[in-house]
Specification:
Length: about 475
C-alpha cells in the first residue's frame, strides 16, 4: 500500500524518475543499490539521545523551543522508494542560547510494530501507514502525518509516541502533511484524500484543537493531492493529473501521471461550504509545494513550485521545474487563470515562509537549492534561496560542496517579515556527520550564525515544525 507520498522534484538536481519505485526490484536483482539506500539517504538503525552537544558560533538567545523534522527511515530491508519507509523524527531542543538536547525516535505506528518483512493484505486502513512526511504543532499537540492515514501524536518533551490521533473520534479520513493554520483565528484547515469515495474531504479544527467542520469535496477520481492553499477567505484545491492507478500498487506509490485526466484549480469559501466551489482548467502539471497564497482584490494569488509532470512511468525525469505565480480572477461569473514564471533557473523547492502570514500577502520565500552533480538520479541538495517577490531579486547561501542542506524552516522572532531564523539539518560529506544549522533570515548570504554538531547522522528527510517552549 501507499505509505507516504512526500516531496517532488525535477531536473538540475531535483530529478525523481517516475519509474524509480518500479526500478527497485530491478536494482535488487542486479545487486545495484538504489540511490535511496546509499549515502545520506540510507536509513539509520539506532535511536540516540544526547545532552552534550558541541556548538560553533552563537545560538540566538530568542530561540526557545524544539526543532523537529520527520522523514522516511525504513526499519528493515530496502523500500520500493525513498518516499516509502517508517517515520522517524529528529528533534533538537534550544533555549537560552544553548543546544540542550538532541533525540531521534521512530514513530511507533502499527506498521512499525508489525514483524519486519511482513506484508499487508487487503485494503489499507486509516491506522496502517508510516507517519513519515511531516510534523505539525497545533493547539498544544505535536502530530506526525504520513499523508495517508490518521496522524500520530508525539510527546514534544521526548518524541515518544502517544498513539494514533483522531480528534476525539471525529476524524475518519486521512490527514494531509500540509495543513494551514490561520494566523488570525488559530484554526487549522486541512484535508484528506483516499483511494475510494469520498476521494477528498475538507476539515477545520478550531484554535483549541477541536474538529468543528468536515465535508466531502466532489472530485471525479482519487488524486494524489499533497498540498493546498488558503487565503483569509478562500480554500484552493489542486486537482492535478497524478491519479490512482491499480497497476502501480506493487511499486509502493500507486499513483501515476495521467494527463488525459486534466488539471484544474478549485476555489471555495474558507470554512465551506464545498457546494460553492468553482473550478478552472489549467495546463497539466504538478505541484507538491507552494510558498503561500493570498487575496489581491478579486484575485487569489499562489506562488508554487511547479513541475511539468510527475510519476510518468519509464520517464527518467520529472520535467522542467519552475517557480510560478498563479493568479485566479474570481470577480466574474467564471474563474479566470493566468500565470507568470518567477524563476526557471535554480527555482528551488521545499519552500518555507513566515507562518504569521499564512494566507496573507508575503514578500519573502526561502527555498532549498540544488546542485547538478552529473550522473545519477538522486537529488543533490545544496543551500537556500531567499526570494524577494516584491523586487524580483534573490539572495543565496551557497555552502561548500561537501555540505548538503535539507528543507529550511522559518522561525519568526521579530516583528518584520524576515526577522527570524532559518533552521535545517545538514550533512557533511567529509566527516559523514550531520549538524543543525541556524541562519539569520535577514542575511542568508552570511552563512550560519550557529552550527550544532549532532551525535549521529540525520538522513535526508522531509518536513519540519517548531514547537515554542
Amino acid at each position: 500500500m501507499l505509505g507516504s507520498v512526500a516531496l517532488g522534484a525535477a531536473t538540475a538536481g531535483w530529478s525523481f524518475a517516475a519509474g524509480d519505485a518500479a526500478a527497485a526490484a530491478t536494482a535488487t536483482a542486479t545487486a545495484e543499490i538504489p540511490w535511496w539506500d546509499r549515502g545520506n539517504f540510507r536509513p539509520i538503525a539506532h535511536e540516540l539521545s544526547d545532552t552534550k552537544l558541541r556548538v560553533r558560533g552563537t545560538i540566538p538567545g530568542d530561540l526557545h523551543g524544539l526543532y523537529a523534522r520527520n522523514g522516511s527511515n525504513t526499519r528493515a530491508g530496502v523500500p520500493a522508494h525513498w518516499f516509502v519507509g517508517d517515520g522517524m523524527v529528529h528533534g533538537t531542543w534550544l533555549g537560552n542560547g544553548d543546544a540542550r538536547a538532541y533525540r531521534n525516535r521512530w514513530v511507533r505506528t502499527e506498521t512499525l510494530a508489525s514483524p519486519p518483512g511482513s506484508t499487508t493484505t487487503g485494503p489499507p486502513s486509516l491506522t496502517t501507514g508510516y507517519a513519515n512526511v511531516s510534523v505539525i504543532s497545533h493547539a498544544g499537540r505535536l502530530l506526525a502525518s504520513g499523508e495517508i492515514g490518521l496522524p500520530w501524536e508525539l510527546d514534544a518533551r521526548d518524541l515518544s509516541t502517544r498513539g494514533v490521533y483522531d480528534f476525539g473520534g471525529r476524524l475518519n479520513t486521512s490527514m494531509t502533511a500540509h495543513p494551514k493554520i490561520d494566523p488570525v483565528t488559530g484554526a487549522m484547515h486541512f484535508f484528506g484524500y483516499w483511494f475510494s469515495p469520498p476521494y477528498l474531504t475538507y476539515h477545520v479544527a478550531d484554535a483549541s484543537g477541536a474538529l468543528v467542520h468536515s465535508e466531502p469535496v466532489d472530485i471525479p477520481r482519487s488524486t494524489m493531492m499533497h498540498n493546498f492553499a488558503i487565503t483569509d477567505r478562500d480554500v484552493v484545491f489542486m486537482d492535478l493529473p497524478v491519479t490512482f492507478d491499480v497497476t502501480a500498487l506493487s511499486t509502493g506509490i500507486p499513483y501515476r501521471w495521467h494527463p488525459e485526466a486534466g488539471a484544474r484549480l478549485g476555489v471555495m469559501p474558507l470554512g465551506g461550504p464545498a457546494s460553492q466551489i468553482r473550478w478552472v482548467d489549467i495546463q497539466p502539471g504538478y505541484v507538491f509545494h507552494l510558498v503561500n497564497a493570498f487575496r489581491d482584490g478579486n484575485d487569489v494569488v499562489l506562488d508554487v513550485c511547479h513541475h511539468t509532470k510527475m510519476f510518468d512511468p519509464g520517464v527518467t525525469d520529472s520535467g522542467t521545474p519552475s517557480l510560478r505565480r498563479w493568479r485566479l480572477a474570481t470577480g466574474g461569473t467564471a474563474l479566470r487563470f493566468s500565470e507568470d514564471i518567477v524563476a526557471d533557473h535554480d527555482p528551488g523547492e521545499l519552500p518555507t515562509s513566515d507562518p504569521r502570514l499564512v494566507g496573507r500577502p508575503h514578500r519573502y520565500g526561502y527555498l532549498l537549492s540544488s546542485r547538478d552533480e552529473g550522473a545519477g538520479r538522486e537529488p543533490h541538495f545544496a543551500g537556500v534561496i531567499k526570494r524577494d517577490f516584491r523586487t524580483g531579486t534573490a539572495e543565496h547561501w551557497r555552502p561548500d560542496t561537501a555540505t548538503h542542506a535539507g528543507e529550511f524552516l522559518f522561525v519568526p522572532t521579530g516583528r518584520g517579515e524576515d526577522h527570524g531564523y532559518l533552521l535545517t539539518y545538514t550533512f557533511d560529506d567529509a566527516r559523514k556527520g550531520s549538524d543543525l544549522v541556524i541562519l539569520d533570515a535577514r542575511d542568508v548570504a552570511a552563512g550560519p550564525v550557529a552550527t550544532v554538531e549532532l551525535p549521529g547522522r540525520v538522513p535526508y528527510g522531509f518536513h519540519a515544525t517548531w514547537v515554542t517552549a
